Write the structure tokens for this entry.
Amino acid sequence: MATPAYETHEHDVIVIGAGGAGLCAAIAAAEAGVSVGLICKSLLGKAHTVMAEGGIAAAMGNVWPEDNWQVHFRDTMRGGKMLNNWRMAQLHAQEAPDRVLELERFGALFDRTKDGLISQRDFGGHRYARLAHVGDRTGLEMIRTLQYHAIHQSIDVYMECKVERLIKDGDRVAGAFGYWRNTGQFVLFKAKSVVLATGGIGKAWKYTSNSWEYTGDGHSAALWAGADLIDMEFVQFHPTGMVWPPSVRGILVTESVRGDGGTLKNTKGERFMFNYIPEFFKGETADSEKEADAWYENKKDNRRTPDLLPRDEVARAINSEVKQGRGTPHGGVYLDICTRRPADYIRKRLPSMYHQFKELAGVDITREPMEVGPTCHYVMGGVRVNADSTAATVPGLFAAGEVAGGMHGSNRLGGNSLSDLLVFGKRAGQHAALYAKNFGGQLVADRGQLEAIARDMLEPFNRSGGENPYAIQADLQDTMQTLVGIIRTESELQESLKRLEALRERARKVRVDGGRVYNPGWHVALDLSSLLTVAECSALAALERKESRGGHTRDDHPYTDDTWGKVNVVLRLRDGRVQVSREPLPEMPAELRALFQEKK
Amino acid sequence: MATFTMKVFRGQPGQGDFRDYTVEVEEGMVVLDVIHRIQATQAPDLACRWNCKAGKCGSCSAEVNGKPRLMCMTRMELFQPGETISVAPIRTFPIIRDLVTDVSYNYVKARQVPPLRLKPPDADGKYRMMQEDVDRPQEFHKCIECFLCQDVCHVIRDHEEHKPAFSGPRFFIKAAGLDMHPLDTRDRTAWIQSQGGIGLCNITKCCTEVCPEHIHITDNGIIPMKERMADNFDPIVWLLRKFRGQRKESA
């Protein structure tokens, strides 16, 4: 077979992914004066960040002067059930306010307080109203602001370009190889350093708030390049996704609905969250409807409603209500904001929720309750990074945003994702630029390596009689949904691994019809290898962790176990197999530990 | 469950035609679901763009029965069972394949809009803006860049020759949003007239009609801008401005 042709681009730094983290990284690297290439799988401005709704968590103290980084740090660690990388959580809490203000200087128009400062709203697990927001379309404001700032910097943007593999030069990551979706032609990016900002893995589940892009490309590419992944057992099921009609099942219903006064009810009309307050959060949670109702009006003298417990708690509670027969016929529960808030308030604060339910479900949320249930939303696990520099365990590789692990521990608080993107995206760009400046060697790409990848990619066109890629993808999503869902058991996890192996076998024979020009069937076929890899990683890590914590609940190990609270489950590729190990969590210094002893 | 015949455009630059697909449609499905079903079962290589499937990203623009729409927000219940529904790519931009078009025109125009030029902060280093002042530009910030307004705009839909010197409604409201930004200090009038080409717009409001975000593109964005341009040629307004000195710095 002839050598497949490819074009070549060279940069000091390439950033893979153009959501919040990737754009911040590219902007920061360009500011540092190096040449930057920004690669996006979709068109610029369409990345997953655009769908973020609620807001950016940052202890700015605009609404509550009592708020500060220590409180935000404490909330984040407690929300993650203390499994977070403490240093990441600290940097995040300290730097988020400055990053929000930077976004404002780039042109973002946040909703305002009466004094003309950035307004902040309540969200689950956050002690104070802390989320800088724009109605319920904060992600759109964020990505558009960063996008329009970035296009005026010296950044080369490569749109609709999918990276298949990272390229290595010895131990070092030396670039990336992929294809243009428009033409199907191959492209090589040579780079001194590479930032992964590829987002998550949620497309491995059937009911998900994630788009087609979330196939774990960055997680897999890092693993294949020799980097460590951590915490892959922790997958966040957002408690409130749409459940009806079937075609919209999984689409996100923002937590802001509850932050702004919405309550969860079962079919008996009970506000069931009062039955699910864990010991860990009893001190700060209202235990009667009376106190919870009073909290909406007077937050100083009342404890917050259990509707705003961290997402893992609420998702498990909804799951349990439905299992016990108190769910709606469509398998959800009710989320009601119309009995507490007037129609005008709802339309002003939650315009896109109003629009989404009206258009897609024929439900007017100012008059009737929404039907909601858990949906796969976010992976806490990801590439193991140095907290300060975001460097992965392979030289030349950096990771920021959802693809990086550690920041959120076993469960992410709402609002902490957008702030994570801003804080660590910028750090990744700065450190990748620094690495590139200090790099003295030549940029080399081994042709043999590239040709092998290119041949693999074209293989599905040459097969006859193989299987349809969409069928394999659907079966994979079914497998993960039923066997690696919110509640897990050893036997089901074992079964999932068997089925994934069978799916891998089928994927080896996948067949693609048509040509290379914008062929979604081919794109789905190529994404199968990363999707299968992250699915296997998630199942292996879930099997390893024999306790329940945050976004990982084991029916056969229902309690949180302190010894497991001191270790990360680490995955790495050795001799072509994913190896699982337990490694100690970085230890928190005494002055930060003290923050948890003061307030119970 | 009902059966529909979908006429979907299949083709590449310079060639192509509508092809019929018979599809079973269930309650609540939108046109994008139907396209996905065709991909999964009948035509795996049928090209279309999509991301969020909730009207937030603006990727799945197409012309459904000739009308520019987001496929993800077009419910099949709009149509009668048995009806034939056509799905074509947005016409104003060159076709890449099937329902996917080359929208790079918009990314070129985006870079030409003179960006924000920030005024200095308050004495304490903070920026203060009142909600009432932010409300107006926030309307334009709702734009999801689906480019349906660009697609339907007569100036470029039927006149390829206008494309070099016309930026289209999307970028008129981008400029309007910047002009109304409480912290901005730049005057974009010269750009709007020259590269923006706003003079070619004859306010037929087609852009406003197709906007899935219901942005008042014409009334709140284009018309005020045109009025300001007219003011620039009004000698009395010009004199007044000269004396009062209220003019933004030029782009």
User: Anything to note?
Assistant: The CA atoms of residues 166 and 197 of chain B lie 4 Å apart. Chain B touches chain A through 58 residues (CB under 8 Å). The beta strands of chain B are 2-12, 15-25, 61-64, 67-70, 84-88, 95-97, 100-101, 186-187, 249-250.
